[in-house]
């Protein structure tokens, strides 16, 4: 009897709609303008970092190669989410088809996972630079840097493809289901399935460990060696400079991994859909916005290169 009802419910195309933030028109306008402003700031800030790194020869080092790669990821990551989110903020609940939801989930998980892997790679880069400075150029070659970024993207693609394909083999009862979120993220979509999802939740937990826990442990190990090396530096100025190159990265790591762990690694019994949506706003807007701010405001090389690039651009325009 259940299987027959399931077939009836599954006949016709399945669509999803997103839960609206608010039904008050005035708040809708404010939220739209706020999120649009944040999105434009993310695009401008991260694009500026990519432009400065690509146009300034003094910044063509592994650290800034990884930083520009991170900025490119943040642009793609927010672009996968924000435009669709803005189009649904007015309360019209424009439906998204099953394939569209699957595509958004795939790219969101891929880019988010690559982001986490890249932060671990950046920690390794700082470890080599501080703990083995004489061998830094021999170890962190351009070929190795490209291979590590390509490996991070490849692993993220593999995990995301497996997870997304597994989730969208589930039946979703009804023609139109409301996702209590602003994107097709894994946990809220899983809640809409009308089947046993224990295996899928276990797979999600394993993927979460591979994407969040393992890279975070590698980052912790890297910074344990880094801290040990910094404490052995005799001059206070040397310790300050060594710490300043790591503090920006550590800030981003704690924010990114902390928020993502609260969403993907907490037991389902202790999670709230509304809490997950609020936390998701942090790693959708705050982290991508803080990356360019933290790395430019706390980095003299980037600030100097950005200032020189703006001055030279302005001078060339006046000629």
UniProtKB/TrEMBL annotation:
GO CC entries: plasma membrane
Keyword terms: Cell membrane, G-protein coupled receptor, Membrane, Olfaction, Receptor, Sensory transduction, Transducer, Transmembrane, Transmembrane helix
This protein's record includes keyword Protease: no
Domain G-protein coupled receptors family 1 profile residues, every copy: 45-295
Annotated membrane topology: Multi-pass membrane protein
Predominant cellular place of this UniProt entry's protein: membrane
Coiled-coil spans in chain: none
CDD domains: 7tmA_OR10A-like
PANTHER family noted in UniProt: OLFACTORY RECEPTOR (PTHR26453)
Protein name: Olfactory receptor
Organism classification: Eukaryota, Metazoa, Chordata, Craniata, Vertebrata
